[in-house]
Specification:
The protein is an alpha/beta fold. The chain contains 12 helices and 11 strands. It is 45% helix and 16% strand. Helix 7 links the parallel strand 7 and strand 8 (202-206).
Length: 331
């Protein structure tokens, strides 16, 4: 049975939604939850019938959002540090944390370690599209300055995740640029394009709109561009929702139309809701770490745990090590 270490204390909303999400996940899928935090505080939040089904690991300290990622390495009594150590020591198969994302990435990279051959782990995000498919974008913030070999490895790791975890047999991989023509891009993307050009999965440059049209399964970029892309997408989705609500209230006809379109609005809300995707996997480490949103509700935590289970049950890390070795030979 897979063991999932859960940083209960790190989220902006406190431990309750994390506990609730864990219980929701447990009711739907079998795994062994390891709840890391102030046991005296969190044990009372777990329903009595589940007490004997979870393991508690005490952590008296909480890493605040104002702390730097480097502080996380020094504060060894925090819930995030102890949760990462469980994976490092082989006592857990994965970690899920809605806490300090930089700390999670730093601790997982330095304490758990990188897969053989991986230069830099990348953090990824699932993006909704106008089709039934989803786009997988990386890096979205772990590495703001990248070389071409880093981006090429992101392509390999993203392809492995989509194939092994999302079960897309023949993923299409694109390199984000300011145009589809080979003459476009900067020096780094041009060098990356040359490295990836011989791969069957590589479709060449893609533009920002291709992220949302379902034409490409994996989109590669550096963490600077990826983080701006992610935050912009979240802002646009939120703004569109507000604009629709604002204009509906202005007109009785619009209100009537909205009532008729309730199912469509419900589907739209589900597609752009981060809680549906759970969290962002950190790919390239010798284990599994899922970075959940700081404001994660119970649904988001539940889905982040499901991500951790799917990741840990796959052979993605072995696949990445093999494909990275092959890429190095090609370079």
């Amino acid at each position: 049975m897979l063991r999932i270490a859960i940083d209960v204390m790190g989220g902006d909303l406190g431990p309750l939604p994390v506990i609730q999400g864990t219980i929701k996940a447990f009711r739907q899928q079998e795994f062994h939850p390891i709840l890391v935090g102030r046991v005296d505080e969190i044990k009372n939040l777990v329903p009595p019938q589940f007490i004997d089904k979870v393991t508690f690991v005490n952590a008296d300290e909480v890493l605040s959002m104002s702390d730097s990622a480097t502080d996380a390495l020094k504060k060894k009594e925090t819930s995030i540090y102890k949760a990462v150590e469980l994976v490092r020591d082989g006592k857990a198969d994965a970690i899920v944390s809605p806490g300090h994302s930089g700390a999670t990435m730093s601790l997982a990279t330095l304490r758990i370690g990188r897969i053989q051959g991986v230069l830099r782990p990348a953090i990824a995000s699932i993006m909704p599209t106008s089709t039934d498919k989803q786009s997988f974008v990386l890096d979205i913030g772990a590495n703001v300055d990248c070389k071409s070999e880093h981006l090429a490895q992101f392509a390999v790791m993203g392809e492995a995740y989509v194939r092994d975890v999302l079960k897309i047999q023949y993923p299409k991989v694109g390199l984000l640029s300011n145009g589809e023509e080979k003459s476009k891009g900067n020096e780094i993307t041009k060098e990356t394009h040359k490295i990836l050009s011989s791969r069957k999965s590589f479709v060449g440059y893609v533009e920002g709109n291709n992220i949302f049209d379902g034409s490409t399964d994996v989109i590669v970029c550096d963490g600077f561009v990826g983080n701006i892309l992610l935050k912009t997408s979240e802002g646009v989705a939120e703004s569109i929702t507000k604009i629709i609500k604002k204009n509906i209230r202005k007109s009785p006809i619009a209100i009537a139309g909205a009532l008729l379109m309730r199912r469509v609005f419900k589907i739209l809300k589900k597609q752009v809701d981060y809680a549906e995707y759970g969290g962002a996997p950190l790919i390239g480490i010798k284990g599994c770490a899922i970075v959940a949103h700081g404001k994660s509700n119970a649904k988001a935590i539940k889905n982040a745990i499901f991500q951790a289970i799917s990741f840990s049950a796959s052979n993605i890390n072995e696949d990445i090590e093999e494909k990275i070795a092959q890429l190095q030979l090609d370079i």
